[in-house]
Amino acid sequence: MAFVATKGGEEAIAAAHAWRADRRHGDGEGCTLKQATTSFGRAIDRVMAEGALYDPDLAARALLQAEGDLVEAAFLLRSFRATRPRLVDSLPVETGNMRVQRRVSAIFKDLPGGQRLGPTTDYSHRLFEADDGEQRFEPTLTAPPAETPCRIPGAIRILGEEALLEGVPLPHDADLPPDLSTTPLRFPAERRVRLQALARGDEGFLLSLAYSTQRGYGNTHPFVGELRMGEVPVTIAPPELGFEIDIGSIVVTECQMVNQFNGSKVAPPQFTRGYGLSIGHADRRAMSMALVERALRAEELGESTGNPAQDPEFVLSHCDSIQATGFVEHLKLPHYVDFQSELEIVRAIRAEATMPTQHKQEDGDDLV
What we know:
Shape: globular
Oligomer: single chain
Number of strands: 4
Number of helices: 13
Strand content: 5-15%
Distance between the termini: 54 Å
C-alpha cells in the first residue's frame, strides 16, 4: 500500500519522462554514438566493467541514455544483458598472450620487454584545456616501430624464479566456480568468487577501500609489480567440434601487486600477490582491485584482521553499484504508510515519556 500513490500520478510520471527526454535530446545536435564511443573511452570502459558486458557500442548507448550517469548506464547495460540468451561459455583468457599496448612496472627499472607507456597522461601536467581540446600535443620524436602492440613476458616472474614470490593461489578443486551472473553471492566466498565480485564492483568504492589499506587499515605495503593493458584473444570450444576457436579479442587491464609478507608457520618470508583484472583501459580500477583482493586474503595468510577492506562479507556485499543503487534510490519512492506508522509510534512514546513529569508536578503543587 505504500506505493499506491505512485499509480495515481501517471500523468505526472509521463510528463517527467517527456521532460527528461527533451533535456537529453536538446536541439537535436547532441552527442552521437560515434562521438561517445571515441571521446568517452574511459567512461565506456567503466560502464562495461560494472555492467559486466563487453560491448563498447551498447555501453555508449547506455551512457547517452543515462545522460552520462555511469551507475545508471551500468544498470541499463546489465539489465539488457539479463534478457539475452546465453549461447556458450568462453574459455579462460590467457593474459600471457596479451598484445600489450601499455606495460609498466614500479619495481624494476630494466626488465625483459622494457617499459611501454602506451596511451596515458601519467607523465604530463594535468592542465584544463580551455580551448575545448582543439590543440593537440605534437611529439618532438617519432614513436619507434617497436611501440606497436606485441606479446611481452610477465615482469614479476623474475621474483618467482628466485622463490621470492608466492605461487599463484590455486583453488581447492578443479570445478568451475559459481557464476555471479546467475548464482547469488554466498559466504564464505572462495577467491574465484571474490575476484568476480570485485571485477564488476563500483570503482569509487574499490578506490576508497584500496586507499584505506595504504593509510594503515590493511597491514599492506604494496608495489606495482606489473600493470599491463592490451588485447587478449577470446576462445570457445564447441562440444560438437572438439577443438578451440578464436572468436575475437577484448581489451583488458591487468595488475599484479607485490606485497611484503613476514611469513607464517607454513610459509617463509616472501612477497605475496594481489590481483586485479578489468575490462578496458582501467589502470585505477585494476590497481584498486588488486589492493583490495590482497587485503581480503589476510585471514588466509595468517595476518591480523579487523579492517573494513579485510572483511569479505562487508566488501563483497557493498561493492556492487547496481545493488547499492537499488537500495538507496528506492527511498525516493512514496513511503507514506510506513512513515505514518512510525510517526504514530514516536507520538505515543513522547506522550508516555511526558506523563510521569506532569504527575510529579501536580503532586509537588499539592505539597506546597
